[in-house]
Amino acid sequence: MQKEPTILSIETSLDDTCAAVTCGTRVLSNVVSSQTKYHAEWGGTVPDIAKRLHQEWLPKVVDLALRKAGSPKLDCLAVTIGPGLAPSLEQGITYARHLASKWDLPLIAVNHMEGHLLSSFATNKNGKPVRSFSGCWPALGFIISGGHTELVLMKEMGVYELLGETLDDAAGEAYDKVARMLLLGYPGGPILAEMAKSGTPRYHLPEPMTMRKDLNFSFSGLKTAARQFLEREKPELNKEFIQDFAASFQKTVFKHLMTRFRRAIDLYSPKMVLLGGGVVSNIDLRNLTRSVAKEYGIPTFIPYNKKLITDNAAMIGVVASYKFARGEFSDPSSLDRLPNLNFDKSDTILSPLAKI
Ligand code: KG4
Ligand code: ZN
Q: Which DSSP string do the residues of 147-183 spell out, in sequence order?
């Protein structure tokens, strides 16, 4: 059996400074140093602050990841090259390039979205390596995060087709923005979701894009509808109202997500579903997705722990292990950040009003 490669991965696509050591799909260490509190007073990620903190923290975070993994002999390095914030990506790439040269190791460039997509394949350090997926293709990937909302068809390992994506805001972004209107702090998505648990969805918010029968998403109209409701009705933002409004917002988000999810299953008959991205931390959403997939007899996979759902470097290491096996290495000197990197778009995306 081929030896699994031990890989040190770096991920700095937004505002988390991350490093991890993986051996194949086994996670030996996974360090995430969150910058959230440094950006909170600005209500969003400030590029200059993110850049400076990544630069300052990377050596320490990498060192910690190596020590936690028992300082193993490395076979390779991996780094996120996009999508993300250019100054943030730049810091991770520069440091990975420096380490590759210092330690004379090969380097693998990884797409952050592929990391989220394969995050369910990660196992703990005693886990069995996940090798064979024969009979599991195609898989349907559903990535729902603060920056992206995407349906991806995985035809086999390493072969992807973007089926649909958000045309404006991402789902997590909408949670955060509506949470801000309700004065719930930053990032408010998880708080809003928590409030929704105790609420009754008594307010009507319009479901986005009901006329479009494609696989794309839109959350900006919903956000605007929420703002207009609050401006028009001027409700007292007491706990009961916030809970009910949060439940109403979340119900509409789920409806929009599930309409597209069902449509993708109907069209592509996947054999498994892979969930990833920060919004998947939402247990109600996870349960709903799983139950819809179950109706079709399809199993749903999610990362084995919470840290693998939000941005992290272990998921980058998992992708890199498959790229290592395929010999997909990058020349460090020509490595560049790709802030808009995505999966290849499908040329079979349905026309906006196609009937299915
Ligand atoms: O994947 P992630 O860590 O970062 C990006 O790549 O964007 O996702 C972060 C997003 C934020 O918008 C956050 O509000 C949202 O995930 N989020 C949630 C929940 N937990 C995190 N949204 C809804 N419900 C949650 N429980
Ligand atoms: Zn992400």
A: S-EEEEEEEETTEEEEEEEBSSS-HHHHHHHHHHHTT
Same domain? For 191 and 274 the reply is yes
Torsion from C-alpha of 139, 24, 317, 18, nearest 10 degrees: 120
Residue in 15, 114, 310, 315 to alter for ligand 1 test, most ligand atoms within 8 A of Cβ: 310
Q: Which domain holds residue 147?
A: 139-303
Question: Is 311 near ligand 1, meaning CB less than 6 Å away?
Answer: yes
The predicted model gives 118-140 an average pLDDT of 83
82 in ligand 1 pocket by Cβ < 6 Å?
A: no
Number of the ligand 1 atom closest to the C-alpha atom of 84: 6
Alpha-carbon torsion (39, 44, 49, 54), positive or negative: positive
CA–centroid distance, 135 to ligand 2, in Å, is 28
Per-residue pLDDT tens over the stretch 71-113: 999 999 999 999 999 999 999 999 999 999 999 999 999 999 9
pLDDT tens-digit profile of 225-279? 999 999 999 999 999 999 999 999 999 999 999 999 999 999 999 999 999 999 9
Q: Over the stretch 34-49, which tens digit does the pLDDT of each residue have?
A: 988 888 888 788 899 9
Query: For the segment 55-69, what is each residue's pLDDT rounded down to a tens digit?
Result: 999 999 999 999 999
Is there a single domain that holds both residue 151 and residue 109? no
CB 189 near ligand 1, within 6 Å: yes
Q: Check whether residue 316 and residue 299 sit in a common domain.
A: no
**28 and 118 housed in the same domain:** yes
Domain identity same for 64 and 152: no
Residue 1 lies in a domain: no
Judgement on whether residues 42 and 108 belong to the same structural domain of the protein: yes
Same-domain status, 294 and 312 = no
Dihedral sign for Cα atoms in the order 7, 300, 128, 68: positive
Look at residue 329 and give its three-state secondary structure: coil
Angle at 59 between CA 58 and CA 64, to 5 degrees: 95
Number of domains in the chain: 2
Both 277 and 256 in a single domain? yes
Residue 176 CA: which ligand is closest? 1
Residue 27: its pLDDT value, please?
97
